[in-house]
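[job 0417] fold request received: NAD-dependent epimerase/dehydratase
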Amino acid sequence: MRHRHHVFVTGATGYLGGALLGALAARGHTVRALVRPGSERRLPSGVPYVLGDALDPASYASGVAPADTLVHLVGVPHPSPAKALEFERVDRASGLAAIAAARAAGVRHLVYVSVAQPAPVMRAYVAVRAAVEAAIRDAHAAGDLDATILRPWYVLGPGHRWPHLLRPVYAVLRRIPSTRDGATRLGLVTRAEMVAALVRAVEAPALGVRVVDVPGIRGVKGNAA
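[job 0417] inference complete; emitting structure tokens
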């Protein structure tokens, strides 16, 4: 029988959040969402929520318990090189806040959506996500947090379909030995694959810090770190 988890989700009204809430609830898990005041109407009907600021752990840490898992999905929408300052202000700050809130609430397992790395582009975005990963590892080293880190590159779905045009290019690059690894690491995944990978992460908590790259997100076994 599958163990039922109590999951606290930040970024619950975003691109992945709504679909994840529904998927978790459908599998019998208890979910609760962090939302800004006024955004609660964007949640699926009946989802319990906590009002707070994802950049300020003190504003919501007391509402995380009794969750055993915190899934952090907050980030700047439609990342681009022009948004480097926003990545610092939102992605880094909210990631560090989620770590602090999880530790304060006694949550053992953090699920964090990072980004594929190394990468030849989007350096500011990758650097911020890598910095949050480093903070997660520090928290684990302190002995009070395990984590699953998912590393997609681009997530296809509604409003995010143009990279389908690159599929023939990816197919060619995967056939060339010198570009095969990069094309695999920076491959495309669908929103459905991401949601399924997030559910798997919740249902099989990491012991330590586990990294799941693009092949793992697609359903192939990820690599441990």
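[job 0417] notes: Confidence is low (pLDDT under 50) at residues 221-225. The helical segments are 17-26, 84-105, 123-141, 167-175, 177-185, 191-203, 214-217.
[job 0417] exit 0
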